[in-house]
């Protein structure tokens, strides 16, 4: 017998279908709105680069805007290049910095993983004996329990706490990478400076030994004249004292050379050893002029500025993490598996077990801990901002100092070269007059001391100029390329 469907029944079913469709559309809309809410609601300030006052031009000669990362090739010294290449591979400071980058990268991965569900799988087996003497009496015995299940837990990041933590971790990773770049830049400049200092000591030692030889020859002349009765014992003793004082500089310079070699060895990352030499100090080249550029370029080029900004980004994101602790924390949990009293029944269809759930935690009272965490994060952000500004201003000073040192040392070197040439001529005149008996040996001693001091000062001024070039490269975050 067939049932008859009335018109009212048809209308009722149509209305139910429409209502069901409306509920599905509302559910879809709600899901879309919830998805947008979950991704859009992020507490805490968004990072914006602070406005820092920068000079429009440099006070001295202005550096270029293009970076030459291997700026040490400007000196065209193969021994220096070999030292730097070896240091980039074996320096302990640089290897420590690389290890810290690896640590920060791993921590960033851990923080990022908190944004995703956690799924665990497990199995358990237990056997239990119940007492016959407990209530209800007579229901004692044994029971078995076998289970295999997978559980899931997931925190809904409604307020962006996990996203802010991930933002901070990524910024901290970037900070460690920039810290490694700072270590590398500092290492290269320190090696170049120490190597140039070593070559200056070599030149000073060579100059001193040459002066010792000259004074020894002069002493022999004085001794011959003394034995011939042409001069007094005063001249002889003055010549002997002058020779001894000059010769005493040799072991002191040798000590400084050995210690500088030890310093270079440690910078390179090897035990103390002798350092191979390349070109003489006077053969080192430096750019005669420095092309033009803009001070604001430093904000993008210097790794220590990028490091300070990354630290500022991280501290800014930590404010959001702290503020999110004031809002409810919602977590979802789920379990799916099989459970049975007998191992043989564990994977039968009727052994399936599952559960779903959710939890909400809302801080009510914690004695001001959340508020103080927020204030702490905000204070750290202010500290990072001040450090960022200070790093920028210090970088401008570094460039200005290096520029003025390069320019003024070049001017001083020109004058020092004239002084050395005049001192040599004065010594020749003093020795000629002494041989002719027109003056005492004191004039010769004064001329010798003046020449030695002038030659040493010339080498030190040259070193100052070359080190200024190194410091300028470092201050510019890597250097420049000369434009043809």
Number of domains: 2
| Largest sheet strand order | 1-2-3-4
pLDDT < 50 stretches: 1-8, 28-39, 62-68
Oligomer: single chain
Report the biggest beta sheet as strand number plus sense, adding barrel if it closes.
Answer: 4 strands, antiparallel
Q: What is the gyration radius calculated from CA atoms?
A: 40 Å
Beta-strand percentage range: 5-15%
Within CATH, the superfamily of the largest domain carries the name: Outer membrane efflux proteins (OEP)
Helix/strand class? alpha+beta
Distance between the termini: 103 Å
Assign the CATH architecture of the largest domain.
Up-down Bundle
Tally the helices.
10
Order of helices and strands: HHHEEHHHHHEEHH
What characteristic shape results from the CA principal axes? elongated
CATH class of the largest domain: Mainly Alpha
Q: Could you report the average pLDDT, rounded to the nearest whole number?
A: 84
Fill in the CATH topology of the largest domain. Answer: Outer membrane efflux proteins (OEP)
Specify the helix fraction band: 55-70%
Count of DSSP E strands?
4
